[in-house]
Design brief:
The protein is of the alpha/beta class. It folds into two domains: about 240 residues, Aldehyde Dehydrogenase, Chain A, domain 1 (3-Layer(aba) Sandwich), CATH 3.40.605.10; about 190 residues, Aldehyde Dehydrogenase, Chain A, domain 2 (3-Layer(aba) Sandwich), CATH 3.40.309.10. It has 16 helices and 20 strands. It has a seven-stranded mixed sheet. Strands 5-4-3-6-7-18 form a six-stranded mixed sheet, with helices on both faces. Helix 4 packs parallel to helix 6 and helix 10 crosses helix 11. The termini are far apart.
Length: about 475
């Protein structure tokens, strides 16, 4: 029944798309405004769902789940008309081959942007509203029909999203399909025109394999071990505060959180003291009693993270409580590259520390691992900043900051290599869910026979002409 129901939904959405209604720009803007109104109306329920699922502080939830999406909507509404209008581009006349010259004479060239069709968006659990609804903004802007699959790991949010969409949108236009692994597998078995997935690398490979059956294009927003390098020439106070904020926001359950710290040996002791200072300043002597510190999403992730506390030397934190799914903000010193904690993305409130002698060593460590989703470098030295940017590869990142590059509507966000493919945010979201169609218009003023067979005696003339 589930498979039949999903097949029926996909077909109805394809019929809706084929009606041409979604290609209308005023229609798209109207739907974006409707989405903004629905989010504002359901703000309390969204924050409450995050509180139930992860004890996420309301300030963090509002900042990361609601504000980011509303900013994306406002930006899309403001720029949608200019994004969608056909762009005239230069038509070159002179080519190295004569066919190009005569084909393009009295012609004009345009790029038309058109929607893809029925797209599937699969969200994830750490920011269950943002990672489901923010790509929806791009899909609506580009003129698609959309099937949303929220993550079942965050138990309360799928119901909020389903109710919000169901009350405000035609189900033949936007549908929410909740469920577990089997539901996701059924959705992936259907032919869609695009798949947008946010999650881990392992499942990302499964999504890509399923997409290959129909040659469906994909965006994979994955993760990885995002390094944070701290140079000796640095403002230690500010660096420590920004690292603690970026790492322990949402209890470290952020795809772009600093995953491990590479710190110059000469300043390591002082930096770690400052990090300890700011952990206590942010969350108190007992973070388990802090209203500003989130919890681990479920028991499986709690057990996985607890298993990473057995190696190295814990210099702060390390406390756990399974009943509350609480793991304290933890910093582990004397970690080796061979330790288990360096073999997988942590995705939790544990920060391993590795010292280095010089920047070349730190860069070598980063380059020896899969390309990360983000890279952070703290240094006053412009030359060293340039070295890190030129000699490493990552999806994105910050200089002297963590996390905040993903908040910009003008910076495309996405991974590279094991950390993903494709990007979104702002105009990049519109482009991700669009097809750029190249069109050349030709005049009927007159036609040149010289390009056409028979070619006898034409080649010598054309060589001389060109």
């Amino acid at each position: 029944m589930q498979q039949l129901a999903i097949s029926d939904i996909v077909q109805k959405q394809r019929n809706f798309f084929n009606s041409g209604k979604t290609k209308n720009i005023p229609f798209r803007i109207q739907q974006l405004k409707l989405l903004k109104k629905a989010i504002t109306k359901n703000e309390g329920a969204i924050l409450k769902a995050d509180e139930f699922d992860m004890r996420k502080p309301a300030t963090e939830a509002y900042f990361s789940e609601i504000v980011m999406v509303l900013n994306e909507i406002d930006y899309a509404i403001k720029h949608l008309k200019s994004w969608a209008e056909p762009k005239r581009v230069k038509t070159p006349l002179l080519h190295t081959h004569f066919l190009g010259f005569f084909q393009h004479f009295l012609a004009s060239s345009y790029i038309y942007t058109e929607p893809l069709g029925v797209v599937l968006i699969i969200g994830t659990w750490n920011y269950p509203f943002q990672f489901t609804v923010l790509p929806l903004v791009g899909a609506i802007s580009a003129g698609n029909c959309v099937i949303l699959k929220p993550s079942e790991i965050s138990p309360h949010m799928p119901n909020i999203i389903a109710r919000m969409i169901g009350e405000n949108f035609d189900l033949n236009y936007i549908s929410v399909i909740a469920g577990g692994i089997e539901t996701t597998q059924t959705l992936l078995a259907e032919r869609s025109d695009y798949i947008f997935f946010t999650g881990g690398t392992r499942v990302g490979k499964i999504v890509m394999e399923a997409a290959a059956k129909y040659l469906t294009p994909v965006t994979l927003e994955l993760g990885g071990k995002s390094p944070c390098i701290v140079d000796s020439d640095v403002h230690i106070e500010y660096a420590a505060r920004r690292i603690v904020w970026g790492k322990f926001f949402n209890a470290g359950q952020t795809c772009v959180a600093p995953d491990y710290l590479l710190v110059d040996r000469s300043i390591k002791k002082e930096l770690l003291e400052k990090i300890k200072k700011y952990i206590k300043e942010f969350y108190g002597d007992d973070p388990s009693k802090s209203p500003d510190y989130a919890r681990i999403i479920n028991e499986n992730h709690f057990n996985r993270l607890s298993g990473l506390l057995k190696e190295g030397d814990i210099i702060i934190g390390g406390d756990t409580n399974l009943a509350e799914r609480y793991i304290a903000p933890t910093v582990i010193d004397n970690v080796s590259l061979n330790h288990k904690i360096m073999g997988e993305e942590i995705f939790g409130p544990i920060l391993p520390v590795i010292e280095y002698e010089d920047l070349t060593e730190a860069i070598s460590i980063v380059k020896g691992r899969p390309k990360p989703l983000a890279l952070y470098f703290f240094s006053k030295n412009r030359k060293n900043q340039g070295r890190v940017l030129m000699e490493t590869s990552s999806g994105g990142g910050c200089i002297n900051e963590t996390f905040v590059h993903i908040l910009s509507t003008t910076l495309p966000f996405g991974g590279i290599g094991d950390s993903g493919m494709g990007n979104y945010h702002g105009e990049a979201s519109f482009d991700t869910f669009s097809h750029k169609k190249s069109i050349l218009r030709k005049s009927f003023l007159f036609d040149i026979k010289l390009r056409c067979p028979p070619y006898k005696d034409k080649l010598k003339f054309l060589k001389r002409f060109l």
